[in-house]
Amino acid sequence: MSRPELQAPPEIYYGDTEAKKYTQNTRNQQIQADMTYRALELLNLPPDEPAFLLDIGCGSGLSGEILDEEGYIWAGVDIAPSMLEVALEREVEGDLFLQDIGQGFGFRPGSFDGAISISVIQWLLNAETSHPTSSPPHRLNRFFTTLHSALRNPSRAVFQFYPSSDDQIQLITSCAQKAGFGGGIVVDYPNSNKAKKIFLCLFVGGGGPQQQLPKGLEGDEEVDRGVKFERRRDRERGRDKSGKRKNVKARDWILKKKELYRKRGKEDVPRDSKFTGRKRRAVF
Amino acid sequence: MVRLITHNLLACHVKGCNSNNFPLEFKDVQIELREAEFNPDFLKGFMPKLEWKALVDAARQLGDTSLPLELPEMLDDDFLKNLHHVLLEIHVEEGTMTCPNCKHEYPILNGIPNMLLAEHEIG
Q1: Which Pfam families does this UniProt record tie to the protein (chain B) (predicted)?
Q2: Could you say which of B3, B45, B119 has the minimum Cβ distance to residue A133?
């Protein structure tokens, strides 16, 4: 299926049903949580000062919940009303705004101690109308300049996003640099197809020893947790009394299947006999 | 869920509206009080960011007169408790916010302010 950002603008794509679906999907929840923790790590906030953060594209508050848990006070903006409605239902603690980030923010300078954004800014890369203010570079510029002024000096902003090409990364980083940000791209697990995650890590305020671009995580992702919900197969494969592992397609299974086919009226189902389900021994 | 903490940071972002665009004025508001966890360290860290006069004015408009007009030198516990209540526990659920300069109205519905601009207002 094609990427969601190519199908419709975000406020339409995330309508009532899609917003519910997105939020209830446990896989989404897990991924969002992992990425939020990683983004917070990259944000590198001083450990014992409670910070005031901005969650850009907060959606239904999946990442906001984690910010709550970690003790941050936050405000979130999103353009999809249905997602915000879900966030209200879930009673997240942050303040929510219905806002198009491509139109820029109205926050006073130096308002926030940091900003995070999980899989959002790829949505800025499509022009929805032919009006000059809706061209991607214009929207990105407006977004980054207003964000830059809304952040404290020094601070960081971390964006996880899904670019579809290197050109897109190029466009985004150049717009961010024009707005005055330092920093760059951090890639986690660059050699894995599935676990590869791209973070844009931006700094407000120059230099400083701790404002060095962090390294992406390398190596394999921690042990594959496997598909969680295939309990049935596990049960079927359970061991018999003698402790040997049962063959899934043993005699019982074959008889069951043949019975089923007969019931459905399939022709040429072989007869049952004492040889059913037996292995043919090597003769020589 | 517009709390005064965010109201105090919010200015108008309409194209060309760059001066006198803060603070946004509340109108026809309905408020709700919801308890939040008291965190004195956060408040102390947040103090320098506040625009004190705007905060007191907004609080008085919403019917809370517990804050002094001038920012006190000493931060005692009572003061911090009051500040905590004003900043984090008063939620504006319905109403509008109006920019004092360009008169753009930001409606608040269900606690969520609508900050979207029309095409000609985008900077």
Answers
A1: Trm112p
A2: B119
- What residues of chain A have any CB closer than 8 angstroms to a CB in chain B? 48-52, 71, 73, 75, 77, 79, 81, 84-85, 88, 93-100, 103-108, 110-111, 129, 131, 133-134, 142, 146
B88:A77 CB<8 A: no
Q: Say what the pLDDT of residue A193 is.
A: 80
Ordered alpha helix ranges (H), A151-250: 166-178, 231-236
Closest CA in chain A for residue B90: A95
State pTM to two decimals. 0.79
Q: Report which DSSP code applies to B114.
A: B
Q: What structural domains does chain A harbor? A: 4-224 (3.40.50.150)
Kindly report, residue by residue over B23-41, the tens digit of the pLDDT: 888 888 888 888 888 888 8
Model confidence at A277: pLDDT above 60: yes
Angle at CA of residue A205, ends A160 and A58, nearest 5° = 30
Whether residue A88 and residue B10 make contact (CB cut-off 8 A), yes or no, is: no
pLDDT band with cut points at 50, 70 and 90 for residue A233 = low
